[in-house]
Amino acid sequence: MNTSDTSLPVSAASPAAQASEPVDIITFKDVVKRFGDVTVLDRLNFSVRKGEKVTIIGPSGSGKSTVLRILMTLENIDEGVIHVAGKPLWHEEKNGELQPASEEHLREMRKEMGMVFQQFNLFPHMTVRRNITEAPVHVLGLGKEEANARAETYLELVGLSDQADKFPSQLSGGQQQRVAIARALAMKPNIMLFDEPTSALDPELVGEVLNVIQRLADQDDLTILLVTHEMQFAKQISDRVCFFDKGVIVEQGPPEQVFTEPQEARTQEFLKGFINPEG
Ligand SMILES: Nc1ncnc2c1ncn2[C@@H]1O[C@H](COP(=O)(O)OP(=O)(O)OP(=O)(O)O)[C@@H](O)[C@H]1O
User: Fold this and answer.
1) Continuous segment of H or E residues that includes residue 154
2) In the chain, where are the structural domains located?
3) Number of neighbours of residue 2 by Cβ within 10 angstroms
């Protein structure tokens, strides 16, 4: 079954979708994602509450990034339904049925989320300021002055007010990643998705990026979904840690529980590979 040729009854929507104030801001219901013959997400059920800080950990290839890329609408799903902020993400309700979403629907839904990638993905030919104002101007329709003011606000938040006229190549990796965070925040998303945001950084630059994410995690309203191998940081900022393996959640719970007393053999085995995860 593929969403591009499938209609689902609206009753497949989660109860949260019908409530005016959904408790869960993200829900995956029986989501399947395949790449060719490989099933990457295997009837995944997963939800995130508004304002919750959730970390996804797990072995390479377990489907962690795919979850974020699907949310950011960079990858489609093959089966199941996802709701974001009470609305179906990859579907639209029409005549009492869930139909595959139009480009316009996806564009609207994308505004709920900002994503920060491992490789920063800044526009190399644009200044730091332009990198940040581009989407607010072209997607949200902000005027140049308002967009510039926004850029200043978020550059200050990430400690880079003095770098606005530089180009990405003139910045360190840690600075580039902080610009990428400011760029995502400038769209004022309700949900921030971080895909291994420190994996491409030299060790001495990791701390400055984690400090910025920590500051965001202190905001109660912002929902954060973070894929990381930084176990100590995961423990520090998460309300919940989810251990993924082979496209399903094997184990999840508060960080103290998952890191200190993992219940499942696969989680125990995975965590053994990290030095002092329970730190
Ligand atoms: N566009 C794609 N085309 C084909 N296969 C893909 C694609 N994207 C991901 N995959 C495969 O899907 C599986 C899950 O990938 P994913 O990137 O979600 O894993 P991950 O848990 O984030 O791993 P890592 O920690 O190495 O980043 C992997 O086997 C990967 O090779």
Assistant:
1) helix 144-157
2) 120-188
3) 11
> What is the rounded distance in angstroms from the CA atom of residue 154 to the CA atom of residue 183?
8
* Distances from the Cα of 214 to the Cα of 146, 175, 218, 277, angstroms: 27, 16, 6, 18
- The question of ipTM being above 0.90 is answered as yes
pLDDT digits (tens, 9 = 90+) for 34-76: 999 999 999 999 999 999 999 999 999 999 999 999 999 999 9
pLDDT of residue 9: 47
Alpha carbon nearest to ligand 1 atom 2, residue = 35
pTM as predicted = 0.90
Outline where DSSP puts E strands in the chain.
8-9, 24-35, 38-49, 53-57, 79-84, 87-88, 91-94, 97-100, 113-116, 191-195, 223-227, 240-245, 248-253
d(CA 219, CA 135): 23
Q: Which of 60, 79, 25 is nearest to 227 (CA)?
A: 60
CB atoms within 10 A of CB 273: 10
pLDDT along the chain (279 residues), means of 10: 46 47 86 96 96 96 95 96 96 90 94 95 97 96 96 96 97 97 97 96 94 94 96 95 95 96 95 68
- Look up tokens 């993924």; give the residue: 244
Atom nearest to 75 CA in ligand 1: 1
Give the Cα separation of 110 and 203 in Å (integer): 32
Ligand 1 atom closest to Cα of residue 58: 21
Query: Mutation test of ligand 1: which of 66, 68, 69, 76 has the most ligand atoms closer than 8 Å to its C-beta?
Result: 66
CA of 102 to the centre of ligand 1 (A): 25
